[in-house]
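Archive entry. Fields below.
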Amino acid sequence: MSQEYPLQRESEFSWRIDPSGKMRVPGIIYADETLIREMDDKVFEQLCNVASLPGIVQAAYAMPDAHWGYGFPIGGVAAFDPDLGGVVSAGGVGFDISCGVRALRTGLSIEEIEPVKKQLVDALFRQVPVGVGSTGRIHLNDKGMTAMLKGGARWAVEQGFGEPGDLERIEEKGCMAGADPGEVSARARKRQQDEMGTLGSGNHYLEVQRVAEIYDPRIATAFGLRENDAVVFIHCGSRGLGHQIGTEFLKYMVLVASRHGIELPDRELACAPINSELGQAYLGAMRAGINCALANRQIITHLTRQVFADVLPKADLTLIFDVSHNTCKLESHPVAGRQRKLYVHRKGATRAFGPGNPEIPETLRAVGQPVLIGGSMGTESHILAGSEQGAGLSFNSACHGAGRAMSRHRATKLWRGRSVVDELAERGILIRSPSMRGVAEEAPGAYKDVRAVVDAAEKAGLAKKVARMEPRLCIKG
DNA sequence: ATGTGC
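PREDICTED_STRUCTURE:
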């Protein structure tokens, strides 16, 4: 644990760094003692940097899966008040804008999947493009690109990818308002024109999982989950488009920071006032990036349904929910007893609205928003539900995954992709990937213990555990 | 995360 950053234990699952130097607010980390001890000192340093940005409200937060990121920690949450000089930061959203997870029920039990598992994983691997630079069968011209950037998953459904009923189970009903395709450069558009409906690389995957354990039967029933059900998890984002938007705006934000009177503790924290031309331009482009990710996951859902229709015609894939974990969104939150409109950055952190929140679909409003936690390849995933107390703890945010425990480079020194695949196959978990190096980088041992992460999130009060899933097959970038 | 990068 850090010598340099004095952590005060606030409770069994929360830790605090009091403001010092240029920090305007404290840093708060939700974690158990083991997670805190193993957390990179860089997380604390980055959290203190975030806490020093103009207009930050209440505290800079780190989730239990936090690790070192670009500028902001991954697993970081920070909210800014536009009227107090609050800022928006490209690095605070992350390069993979609106990277997120979508979970689907299949209407099948795992016993129905097992006999055709190999056929299913091979068909998915053929049908869903994966890997660095992967392209799909959809090619968008500039007009189509603009419509996609404006319409998100709603556009995808209009194009015949999926069903109108899907939209109800997506954040923002599948279409992020305030997107400004005019702020998305020609280069970003070009990079994306052949990449719709592709999974990408890194930690992105498509898995078929077994519901292994139900923690909260009432909420599980509301989410349509039963033990032994087969479910699909899709984890991916906005591909080359989001990355290009992030890269370009980061550069502009570095250039004009001093003009806005912003002193950057770290160049990677480049940001612009929300109430500035650049801040508004970024928000418009970022929202278009959100729509790109929502459309991408929608198209992949359609491809997945086609595969199931072929291999398991009895299947009926219905959307449980779709959550993004790299965003900046305008939300209303109580601060010291007063509702305030804040721009909440969640980078590697999942929105987790509690019961009653009007943003949650009516059919789920009584139980809270599904919080989808994708574990690493070969390990378990979790579904949680937003809690009422989460509002006062982290602007209704929770963890997003297991969180890396070491660098990709170190992981490739410790594991061989081929042996990882073989070992998982022995446990009946089938992996298909174009990159054995990618598999080594994503080896289960390179990640934190996802169950410890989820337990800490629950015990800190951020969200409530609902169900635990085990992977049976996985296609990976 | 990324038409992976120096």
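CURATOR_NOTE: The first helix of chain A runs from residue 33 to 38.
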